[in-house]
Design goal:
This protein is α+β, with helices and mostly antiparallel strands and 96 residues long. The chain is built from two helices and five strands. It has one domain: YaeB-like fold (2-Layer Sandwich), CATH 3.30.2310.20.
Length: 96
């Protein structure tokens, strides 16, 4: 049975910001980045534990997958996966 996938408002905003930022240099690359992020999140509904545990969190239910240079961070609660944030891999994760 597949898990239900949800997006937090913050993650939606992150994705939009990434698209706008990358599009300043290349709209084609921006579309490829967004597509890759969306593709990986769709797979999470079937394989939610495929991502690694976020090292800063040390919680088995908070995981991440890498897409290009971005960390797609998500939480597993019951049968629901919530994409919580998408951050650049070089950015320090703010845990506040």
């Amino acid at each position: 049975m597949a898990y239900r996938l949800e997006w937090s408002p913050a993650a939606i905003e992150d994705l939009e910001s990434i698209a706008l930022y990358v599009a300043r240099d290349s709209s084609v690359y921006a579309a490829a980045v967004v597509k890759a992020i969306l593709d990986i999140t769709r797979k999470l509904s079937r394989f939610p534990f495929a991502g690694r545990v976020v090292p800063e969190m040390d919680d088995d239910n908070i995981r991440e997958m890498f897409v290009y240079s971005y960390r797609v961070i998500y939480r597993i609660r019951g049968r629901i996966i919530t994409v919580a944030s998408i951050v650049h891999g070089r950015r320090i994760l703010d845990l506040k």
